[in-house]
Design a protein that fits this description.
Length: 171
């Protein structure tokens, strides 16, 4: 080939290259968190369903021994008193609530994975819903755990809201 065959004409523009789609590491972290949360809640629901007709104080004591905790510690004896008050009907309600919430969070995670606009709004609404509850808990009893959860929810809301046009399919 000659040198003139490889040169571009003086007035031509270089071929436009499509920019690589930006990775959405934040979105992937949210998706993984939602799917893990959904799986854990489903396991909790199934566990609670399996315990609803059992002797809860006995099962609670067995669990404490299994995790090598002293069931006679004041904290655990107080907690055991609260466990005694739980009715089988209350257990069923907790199990169904956990299962329904698990389904919601899992659907949300799958929708985010496929970058559906409704999943973005659902995730924003769900995360924003818990912010006032967490603020109230922090005011009543400061806890680093609640503070961390609050910050994570605020970051999720802000991140998804600011990046909704880039992250989700528009219809």
């Amino acid at each position: 080939m000659t040198e003139t065959a490889t040169k571009k004409p003086a007035g031509s523009k270089p071929a436009e290259t499509k920019p690589a789609e930006k990775r959405a590491a934040g979105l992937y972290a949210i998706i993984i968190g939602k799917l893990v949360k959904g799986a854990v809640l489903a396991l909790v629901a199934l566990s609670v369903f399996s315990l609803h007709d059992k002797d809860l104080p006995y099962e609670f004591r067995r669990f404490l021994i299994w995790i090598h905790e002293d069931p006679e510690k004041r904290f655990f004896t107080d907690l055991a008193e609260k466990v005694r008050e739980i009715t089988p009907q209350g257990m069923i309600q907790v199990a169904w609530g956990s299962l329904i919430y698990s389904a919601l969070v899992t659907i949300e995670g799958v929708g985010l994975f496929f970058r559906q606009w409704w999943a973005g709004w659902l995730s924003i609404a769900e995360s924003a819903f818990f912010v006032p509850i967490e603020v109230r808990e922090m005011v009543r009893h400061f806890s680093w755990k609640v503070t961390t959860i609050l910050l994570i929810n605020v970051v999720i809301v802000v991140y998804l809201y600011r990046n909704r046009g880039r992250l989700f399919h528009r219809h």
